[in-house]
Automatic annotation (TrEMBL):
<comment type="similarity">
    <text>Belongs to the plant acyltransferase family.</text>
</comment>
<dbReference type="InterPro" id="IPR051283">
    <property type="entry name" value="Sec_Metabolite_Acyltrans"/>
</dbReference>
<dbReference type="InterPro" id="IPR023213">
    <property type="entry name" value="CAT-like_dom_sf"/>
</dbReference>
<keyword id="KW-0012">Acyltransferase</keyword>
<keyword id="KW-0808">Transferase</keyword>
<dbReference type="GO" id="GO:0016746">
    <property type="term" value="F:acyltransferase activity"/>
</dbReference>
<protein>
    <recommendedName>
        <fullName>BAHD acyltransferase DCR</fullName>
    </recommendedName>
</protein>
<dbReference type="Pfam" id="PF02458">
    <property type="entry name" value="Transferase"/>
</dbReference>
Amino acid sequence: MPSSSTTIISKCTIYPDHKSSIKTLKLSVSDLPMLSCQYIQKGVLLSYPPYSVDDFITSLKRSLSTALAFFPALAGRLSTDPDGHVHIVCNDAGVDFIQAKARHLFIDDLISPHLDVPDCVKGFFTLDRMLSYSGHSKPLAAIQVTELADGVFVGCTVNHAVTDGTSFWHFFNTFAEICKGAKKITKSPDFCRDTVFNSPAVLKFPAGGPKVTFSGDEPLRERIFRFSREAILKLKSRANNGNFLEILGRQCNDSWKVVDGDTNSFLKNKAAEISSFQSLCAQLWRSVTRARNLSPTKTTTFRMAVNCRHRLDPKLHPYYFGNAIQSIPTLATIGELLSRDLHWGADLLHKNVVAHDDNTVRKGIANWESEPRLFPLGNFDGASITMGSSPRFPMYDNDFGWGRPLAIRSGRANKFDGKISAFPGREGNGSVDLEVVLAPETMDGLLSDGEFMQYVSVSE
């Protein structure tokens, strides 16, 4: 494994190039539970720029200043008022910008096939292990640019109580778009706070603020598993008991895309069939659970984060800025999950996702309001899997001016045994990469699981 050492060259604060017209934004019932989560850390690996790194740094700083004017919440700080409500104060306090070097590292060191993700990637991010509650005194966002021997890595760190994945990638995409030379951004954020997620409920914190809900010190292995469109369609056909083979051959009918503009057909099929992503999740659930070698009578949980923007009636703005997510837990006994076929587990996931409609979202909000609480992130019983991120997110749209990223990587934040993150595959067309974090012995078991590995194109 390559050395993990990264040298910090400089650090400064970047301010918005225009003062914010927004004064405060109250945290919602979807934002508040994230205050005990660590900051989101995601970044893009790029080939070496066609000009000097110093010129690239200058361009990034200027573009970041412009982007922050469109996203003033990220340049602010958190504040708790006397009644206990937490707000983002859009005071233009700025974000951190860090320039670093790791010239001993090459692109191939980071994306070599058949190896775990090297620890050196963790050094490409700042605000490490920072809880979102710390946004009361720390910046709500930071950018770190690390120069490699033959490339650069742009790491973006954002407070999780301020953004979910949708808003995170909206900001990151806009930042890249401006750096590429856009004079006008294509998608403006919506800062409306007149939504069902707004609430008078108060979340009380212990003295000194919340603590992280998982240890963070357990030994872990992290690996990227790549699934081609063809492999996922095979999984989907198997999950649907082969009933949709003709449909799969006729359409690129991935669950995260409307195909050929046929919205009505898409929605009808979506409700009727187990989706590509649900099929992949079910296979992962089975294989990781088998690798853990737990008692058949024990209950296992597969937890998925879902975007509620389009599930509400009326829908939220697609670029509503903030958290608009809820967690869907699906439970089964280990014995039943492993003794039944793939369809059985996939159907459980599918029915739960389809049932998560406007009524379910509102019930979840009401339930939280009756008992305000932080989100308990972690694997408390040793039998859980938590799926985060999404193959829908436009991660490879982060073109800073000379081409799409070579890979997406994340930092140390919010990782524990059973934490999975889904990324779109770089080749697009319905391919998916799964970032899988597991206990070392469980990872060994997963790598030797033939039912799972037959669908893996390349494991990185």
